[in-house]
Specification:
By secondary structure, the chain is α+β, with helices and mostly antiparallel strands. Strands 1, 2, 3, 4, 5, 6, 7, 9 and 13 form a nine-stranded mixed sheet that branches. A hairpin with a 5-residue loop joins strand 2 and strand 3. The longest helix is centred in the middle third of the chain and has 17 residues. 50% of the residues are buried. It binds adenosine-5'-triphosphate. Adenosine-5'-triphosphate (ATP) binds next to helix 1 and helix 2.
Length: 311
């Protein structure tokens, strides 16, 4: 396999397929106690947000991954890349030679708690499926996604959904309108398993309740009312992320001081998410976060966003 990073244009030939895929924010992330297998049961309310990666699949002599974008140097280009794993899983199932070049145009923060790697897995799966005309059903693609990782099925379907089990058993949810967000991207990532380990440490000896989706949060999503949603946002991993990265408290404060309705750590962090009432406030909060010096950059996005789509 060829390992290379390229900052050049994504490949484009008549035979290539490009898939656009959104990031996610967890508007609720309820975490149960560690199971004997080490995983945690979750009640995970996913919302796809309009920050996108694009994965282009082009026929090649052998499997190769390239990546462009500001965080490209942090993306593995070997078979550990979720896009490569997705191509190999699909090729293995259909007896196809995985002779494909996957180019990732990366805009989703890496290791930021926004499921960027999972997004690339879902996008690569859809792109290779279209390139190879496998005829796989949606259910089969979702099954492969679940094998790749807990967040991958949601990246395929997008919109809003409740994830149970390890997060991979999805029930689509209705949203009554558009929600606006600002995301503060931190310097450096946080490892999801390390954050879960810190959650286990912080909750050791306590009675961790069964994770369930909050009815008030589901109602708020369905109503499309950002003020109602702001009151119900929750993330059981937030204390663990803050324990590992105490400086995130200052980022959260900078966004709420500037007029965000609510602030929370996105998934396992360290990206922080700020729900805002309107576009003007979004730009004000983004400017304040940038000026605060408590984050690397601030991004404005709307939700829900569609799932992985061939463009
Ligand atoms: P999640 O929100 O699903 O927990 P995350 O957004 O915090 O994940 P990712 O951007 O998915 O984090 O990156 C986590 C790790 O996954 C990276 O440090 C990297 O080593 C690995 N990885 C594998 N494939 C990719 C990919 N295509 N893009 C980015 N990281 C990848």
């Amino acid at each position: 396999m060829t390992d290379s990073v390229t900052a050049t244009e994504s490949p484009s030939t008549a035979a290539s397929v490009t898939v656009r895929v959104p990031a996610k924010v967890n508007v609720q992330l309820a975490v149960g106690a560690a199971r004997p297998d080490g995983f945690h049961d979750l009640a995970n309310v996913f919302l796809a947000v309009g920050l996108y990666d694009e994965v282009t699949a082009t026929p090649a002599d052998e499997l190769a991954i390239t990546c462009s974008g500001p965080d490209a140097a942090q993306v593995p280009l070997d078979r550990g890349n979720l896009a490569a794993r997705a191509a190999l899983a699909l090729a293995g199932r259909y007896g196809i030679e995985p002779a494909v070049h996957l180019h990732i145009a990366k805009d989703i923060p890496v290791a930021g708690g926004m499921a960027g790697g999972s997004a690339d897995g879902a996008a690569a799966l859809l792109a290779c499926d279209a390139l190879w005309s496998t005829g796989a059903s949606r259910e089969e693609l979702l099954e492969i996604c679940a094998e790749l990782g807990s967040d991958v099925p949601f990246n395929l379907i997008g919109g809003a959904a409740l994830g149970t089990g390890r997060g991979e058993l999805l029930t689509p949810l209705t949203t009554g309108g558009t929600f606006r967000w600002v995301f503060a991207v931190a310097d450096g990532g946080l490892s999801t398993p390390v954050v879960f380990g810190e959650f286990d440490r912080l909750t050791a000896g306590t009675d961790v309740p069964e994770p369930t989706a909050a009815p008030a949060l589901l109602d708020a999503l369905a109503s499309g009312d950002p003020v109602a949603l702001a009151k119900t946002l929750s993330n059981d991993l937030q204390a663990a992320a803050l324990s590992l990265r105490p400086s995130l408290a200052a980022t959260l404060a900078a966004g709420t001081d500037a007029g965000a309705l609510a602030a929370l750590v996105s998934g396992s962090g360290p990206t922080t998410a700020f729900l805002v009432p309107d576009e003007a406030t979004a730009h004000r909060v983004a400017a304040a976060l940038t000026a605060s010096g408590t984050c690397r950059t601030a991004r404005v996005a709307v939700s829900p966003a569609p799932g992985a789509t061939v463009v």
